[in-house]
Known about the structure:
homodimer; 330 residues; alpha/beta; 14 strands; 32% helix
Amino acid sequence: VQILMTKDAWARVRDRMPALPTGTQIVTAAAPDLFTIDGSPVATQAVRPEAAWLSSDAFLTGLVQPLADRMLASPAARWVQTSSAGVEMPIFRAIMSAGIRLSNSSALASPMAEYVLAHALSMLVPIDAQRATQAKREWRRTPYHEVGATRWLLVGYGAIGQEVARRAKAFGVHLTVMRRAAHSDEMVDRTISRAEMLSVLPEADVVVLACALNDETRGLADAAFFGAMKPGAILINVGRGALVDEVALRAGLDRDQPARAALDVFATEPLPADAWFWDHPQVRVSAHTSGLGDGYETRGATLFLENLGRYLIGKPLLNEVARQELGLTT
Amino acid sequence: VQILMTKDAWARVRDRMPALPTGTQIVTAAAPDLFTIDGSPVATQAVRPEAAWLSSDAFLTGLVQPLADRMLASPAARWVQTSSAGVEMPIFRAIMSAGIRLSNSSALASPMAEYVLAHALSMLVPIDAQRATQAKREWRRTPYHEVGATRWLLVGYGAIGQEVARRAKAFGVHLTVMRRAAHSDEMVDRTISRAEMLSVLPEADVVVLACALNDETRGLADAAFFGAMKPGAILINVGRGALVDEVALRAGLDRDQPARAALDVFATEPLPADAWFWDHPQVRVSAHTSGLGDGYETRGATLFLENLGRYLIGKPLLNEVARQELGLTT
C-alpha cells in the first residue's frame, strides 16, 4: 500500500502519523518527476498509490497535477484528500469519475471569514472618513449606519459561509442565506433559494459570495443581479471569479450597485496587469489570498491525519465530496 | 412636578411618554436661558425640576450645563438620566453629592464595539498590505497571523467591554479582562486585577481601553504599561484620553510597543491642530465619535422612557450609578 504526498507535507506530519498497516509505503514528491520512498528515488511507474494528499504546498508549487496523475494511473487508487475547499478543477472531476473518493478541506474557512468581516467592517464603520478628517487635522464627527442594523445576503453556506455567519451574527446583523438545501440553523434569519435571490438583493447591505463554482452558479452575479442590488451595498467575493460577470460588475459599480467591492478571486488568475480592477477606486483587490492565515497548514495537516485514521479503519471520512456536487450521476 | 429635557429630546419622546401623574409639567430647553412649558417661556427661577434627561443632543449643543444647573438649584431634584456612559465630568459628582440619583447609558456601547472590532480587524487582517500590492498591480500573497490566534486584553468590563467581548469571542480570540470585580462570565477566558496587568501585557496582541476614568484609572497606560506591551501589539482607546500618558505612548510607538494605535479620545479635546497624533504614521485619530452610530439616539430615548416609567412607580432604575463609582462615600 502506498500513500502519496509532497515532501514538505510529509515533513509536517511524519511525527504524527497513525499506526499504518505493515508494508505501507510513504511516497513523497519533491518535484514533478522526483518521487522517493524512505529517501530513495523510485521510478514514476512504480508509484501506484492507494491514497494521496494534495496539501496546500502542492497547490503553490505546481505538484497537484503530478500527484493527481499518479493517482489516476494507479489501479490501487481509492482516496484523495485535498487541502482546497473548491473542487471545480478538472482533476477533481477526473478523480471522482474514476471512482476515487475525494474529501476536501475547511482549513481555509476561518481566515476567509476573517477576511470577509475585516473588509466589511472596515467599509461599514467610517474608517476611511476618519482617515480623511485626520489627514486634514479636522476634529469632526463621522456618523454612520450601524453594522448591527445592516442586512447581509450570504450566497453559499458550506464551511466558509458558516464561519462568516458565526462572526457576522455576533454583530447582530440580519442574515439571509442562499443555498440549495432548505435546511438552516439558529444563526440564519432566513434561507432562500436561487429563485428568490433577486427579491432579496434590494434589501441587502452586504452581499458575500462564498459558494462553490459549478454549472449552476457560474455567472450567478450577472447584470440582473447587480441591477437588483441596493445602491450603496458592498459585494465581497471569496468564492470563485467565474461566479461574477465582471463586465456587469463594472457597469454596476458606476451606478453604486454595488458601491464597493472586495474581490479575492477573478475569472482570470493571476489578474493580468492591465485588468481594470487594479485602479478602480471602488474596488479592493487581493490575490486569492483570503485563506492564507498562518493556521491553515496546521489545520490542513490535522484534517488529513484524522481522515487517514478514518480511512484505515473504514469510518466515514470528514468532508467527503458527494458525486452530485460535481454534477456526476451516481 | 417638572421633568426637564431639551426641546429636541422632547420631540423624540413626546409620543411615547408613559402616563404621568396629574400636574406633571414637561420643561424644555431650546437654549441655555430659554425654558418653555407647553410652548410658553418660563422664567429660569421657575424651573424646579424633579427629574432631568441629559440627552445626547444636549452634549452636542452645550445644554448639559444649563440643565444640570437647574437640577442643582431645584429643591425638588431627585433623578438625572444621562446619555453618556462616562460620568467623570464634575457636574456628575456635583449631582450625586447633592443626593440626586444618576443613571447613565449604554446606548453607545454597540457602535463603540463596532469601532473597536473594525479597527482591530482592519489592522490584523492585512488590508493595508493588500492595498499596497494592488497599488503596484502586483498579484502577491499576503499571509498573516490569524485573528483567531490572537490574545486580547480588555481593560474595563462594563456595557462597552461586554459588547466588545461578545464580538471578539466570535472570532475565537483569547480574552483576558481586567476589572475591579473578580466576577466574570462565559465569554472571558481570564479575569485579572490591576496588580496582574503588567504580567499579561507581554502576551496581548490587542489591548482595548474601555474603562471609566477615575482616580484609580487616570494615567493607567503609563511608561511601565507601554514598556510591558508585546512588540507589534495594537492599542485601541475608546475610554478616556486621560487613561493614557500620551508622552509615554509616543515613546512606546517608537519601540513598536504598541506598533499601532486607534485613538478615539484624548487628554485634550478637541485635539489641538498642532498635536503630534494627527500625522503619526502609526496612529489613527477619530474625534470622540466611536459611539455615533445612527441607532444611539433611539436607544437613548428608549432607555430614558424605560427609566422614567420605573422612576414613577418606584422600581429600580437601569444603569443607576453607585456613589462609590465617583469615589463618594455613602
